[in-house]
Write a structure and sequence with these properties.
about 180 residues; mainly alpha
């Protein structure tokens, strides 16, 4: 997952900022925001740690095993939640991608795809996250005045468009990480 220094640090900053905002969303008055925020914060901070340049922090191989366990547990929780809320399937795919990348680093640290080409699972994940980025970006395009005077002041933790921006940013970061795998 460790790419060029400046790109890695940009990924670290992007993912850490997304994780921090997700922690803020855990204080939301909207139950659905609180329900998803913890898993998204875990994903953001996990991706930030994974993107730290190897020259700065070269984790021992045992760390990758811990990543596999943590994100497998997050994936199980996302699968359980997605049974009743199908829109949570994105969290399941994200956790599966983290398990896949962590397992790849555990089994062959530092080895890229090389001459073997891109494995089918990596390609499928790249297609999924690219589609998610395009769909999320399209939903952010304003279609008219969305201000409702009766809604009052909305706190930072309750802004659905900012939650969508966090998901968009983490999907873009996932693409970058999958490309460097």
């Amino acid at each position: 997952m460790h790419g060029p220094g400046s790109a890695s640090w940009l990924l670290v900053a992007l993912c850490a900022a997304s994780g921090a905002y997700c922690l803020l969303r855990m204080r939301s008055r909207v139950e659905e925001q609180r329900r998803t925020a913890g898993g998204e914060a875990l994903m953001g901070f996990g991706m930030a740690l994974m993107a730290v340049p190897a020259a700065v922090l070269a984790p021992p191989s045992g760390v990758w095993g811990a990543y596999v366990a943590v994100f497998a547990a997050a994936g199980l929780r996302a699968a359980w939640t997605a049974r009743h809320r199908p829109h949570h399937a994105h969290h399941l795919v994200g956790a599966a991608a983290m398990v896949y990348m962590s397992a790849a680093m555990l089994l062959a640290p530092g080895a890229g795809h090389g001459a073997a080409g891109v494995p089918a699972l990596t390609g499928a994940l790249l297609l999924y996250f690219t589609a998610h980025v395009l769909a999320s970006g399209a939903r952010l395009v304003p279609v008219g005045a969305a201000v409702t005077p009766e809604a009052g002041v909305v706190s930072w933790a309750d802004r659905p468009e900012l939650a969508l921006v966090c998901r968009l940013a983490m999907s873009m970061a996932m693409i970058a990480m999958l490309l460097t795998l």
